[in-house]
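User: ok so my PI wants both of these folded by tonight, can you help

Assistant: No problem, let's get them done. Here's the first:
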Amino acid sequence: MNQILQNKYAFLIILLILGVLSNLLDELVHRAFTIPNNIWYEIIDVTVMVSVTAPLLYWMINKIRLDSNQIQQAKDELQQIFDTSNANFYSLDLENKKVKVSQGIEKLYGYSKNDFLNNPELWKQVIHPEDKRYVEGFEVCLSTQELKAKTQEYRIVRPDGEIKWVEEHVTPLFNSLGQVVRLNFIMLDITDRKKVEQELNQKREELKISEQNYKTVVDISPIMIVIHQEGKIVYANPKASQIAGIKEPSNLIGTSIYDLIDPSSINTFENMFQDLQEGKLKSKFAEYKLVRPDGDTLIFEMLGTNIFYNGKPAILSVGRDITDQKKMETALRQLAYHDELTQLPNRRFLYENLKKSIARSERHNHKFALLFLDLDGFKKVNDTKGHDVGDLLLIEVSRRLTQCVRDEDVVSRVGGDEFVIILEEILENEVHEVSKRIIKEVSTPYSINDSTVHVTTSIGISIYPHNGKNEEDLINAADKAMYFAKNKGKNNYKIYDPEIENSINSKFEFFEKIINHFRND
């Protein structure tokens, strides 16, 4: 249309130019021929004007006809595209209240072209009630002529009740006065995208709730949870701060994890830390001692595992306080393997330790001695002074025996007033020295409850491997040697030798003859 108007203006200008040229030609002809105004002058004038203007008129007419055809062809092509395209667009003529709708809009909205043509307000009426505010804001802008190209999203309701999400791109067209005369809309069906967004939002919400629940569980957890990166604590739950003796978990953030580890457990922790960092293990259990600011030491069973925290590799350490459990285990072990009165190892401990001593001696090819002690005169003390004094006497004897041997030697109480001592990696002359020292210390008078008490001891000794290669043989040999020493006057010691067996056998034969004699009588 603009092209046609431009051609009309050009045509008028050319006619004006032709008029001016005609006058000029007329003047030139008149002067050239100096002919008065007569019929010949008119003929020449007309002939010149026609010869000049005719080609120009012919060119202009063809040009206008060609431009008009091209414009009409372009309009037909655009109309064909508009009518047949599956694209979602429509055009609203605000001056003539006419609507043009593409085939795609029909599919998107579910209404026919005629529905839109018969009801220009239909595009607003199908908008979801909850999204009407978009149209209201749009109309305000339209009424104030402040409308600009914009994009917005809203829902529409199809005739079958299905709800679709659309993304609307609107472009206003203005007249020469700056008034909006047409609105062109391009609509995109974003229903599937919105479904995906809603699913993602739902997943995010579920994840957020899950994280909140997880954080709640972690915060109220009775176990210690710490996350550290490169040795620095980046997260600690309230239980961790409670164990560490620190008021708030945030006060632990940024501190070294090594500040919590007792020096005696540093090597164990570093080994675990290194194994996890190098990927040798995915997770690892270990026991550590944790030290509090007040100096208290706790024993913890901890699991370390590799994780990612805030996008960076980290180690999650989860631990539980087993201090009380360890104390209970120690107490139970004490009850199971130690004498309740003297706190010395008991018979069970002796047998287990004796097995280990035999294995070590066999492996390293060295000797060890087993001393079997029995107190002389203990029964008399017990009967005359009472069991309380007897118990205190046993405790004091145990203390003296422990002081007579090395720290690595084992002193055990195996009966009422019987003790067994294991001396590993010792020479025979050293066995004599220890035995003499024990006899001297035990026979020294005891002051108990304002009373002076006297006891002595008889010691029988067996040497591994000469006097036995197992526990029973060694104990039996030492026991026989002890009775031999007791029969020889007590308060002395005897190393086992085969002659003891002959002496014992002879003694039994003597008593058997006496018994048989009385039986015969």
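One down. Here's the second:
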Amino acid sequence: MSKKYTEDNYKEWEDLYNEGKNYVEIGASFNADPSYIRKVLIQKGVATRNPVRFTEEDFLMWERLYQDGRSFDAVGKEYEVSGGYVRKILKKRGVEARSKSSFSEEDFNRWVALYNEGVSIKDSALEYKSDFRTIKKKIEPHVKIRVNGAKISKEEKEEWIDLYQYGFSINEIGKLYDISRQVVTIFLNSNDVDTSRGINMTADLIREWEEKHLGGWSIHKIAVTYGCDSSTVKSYFDKNNIEYTLREAIVPDPPTEEELKRWEQMYSERVSADKIAEIEGVDRKRIRYFLNKMGVELRTSNEAKLSKPHLLNAEPSYIQKQVIIGSLLGDGCADTRGRLIIGHSEKQVEWLEQKRDWLGELVYDNGIKRSVKNGYKIGSIKYTLNTVPNQFIKKLRAESYLSTGGRDISSLIPHVDALALAVLFGDDGHYMNRGRGSGGISTYGFSEEQNALLAEHLHTKLNIDCKVSRHKKVFEDKGKKFYYGIYIRSSGMQVMRELIAPYLPNSMKYKIGLNR
């Protein structure tokens, strides 16, 4: 029996089976092959359910599944009987078996191409509604069939974990070891390595990926930014007939001894793997992989070049938390490593300096950085600052960033006090110089419901009289679209001015109608 599962697992399988679950459902819960579960339960003396108890309704469902393209084996596996039994029943009912030659030469070529890309025969069989043996027989003369996972040594399999953690995709690992990515995935999952990297796909998100790629982003950068695997991005590009450019696959052939010594020396001198990769003209994954093989203790991505690693798990102060929350609602953003990134124009450098002072030690060593924009508003000057990675920031990002690319700020709103509001208003607020002076917050990136939650919080907790405002914008290609923000009545503006004025530097007080 497999060493991967314990006697406790076997007992759970037995209980689930006796409760009415089938082998397929149990297998899905434990990431185990249903046929293996059946074998274990038979060895344990568990009486299997009698297949002759199927109803007419079941047989009709078998017909429909088979006519929809499922194989006899696939139908049998779902109903816990052999494919031969399904074939026998359907033959008696006059269902004609499909001819194995129903696929075209183009299909055969596609199977070969998919297999060479790391797609398993099983996945191709599911996609083409065929059976495993048909596809294997057709591609065997043209490809080298990958070895079974059982023939890979334990040491090699453990190396998969290192490769995956240092940036190699499951697809790349499969190619390196000449094995299917499914075998790699099962092994990683069985060793508690999270390989989900899932993402809720929408047409808008795929279009956004396409625009990013056309703008120069690599497949790898898109995958890292959106929290998925490179193969996921390529898969959706293929499905939507989107052309893309791939860099040559990375095969970790050993570098020379001289190269290794040079890399180790630079890394010991605090040069990052990214910088070494840039100097050497190779991929950072290659640098990190071979440094690790040499026994070099690698700095994690969360340590941001080992700048203040002691702050990674440190609890931020109240002021730091308020600035982080206000920035995430305003002009700041958090990356997957748990860093807060804030950018402002040249006119708001004093405002950025104020945030730097509030954030204190959390700010990365290089402080405020000046750069020239290459995208929107080409040539304009931008100033940015980054914090070092911190688990509090990473937690807020996980709670407020959606995999679809949107935001959900409902978990941030209850923590907004006067300082967080000052940061938000300094970023996105504006004063309306009419009547007694009202104001607004351009929280257009959030939904109407989230703006309503924010308005309610400002009213009940901070006594600011405000409401949700709606704004219409007309696009030539998309028609009209509505955006939502916060409108602050003049009475609310007076209350808010008293609350946040002490936090705003002189250069920003025009936002609340002062120093105009």
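Residues 257-298 form one domain. The chain has 24 helices and eight strands. Good luck tonight!
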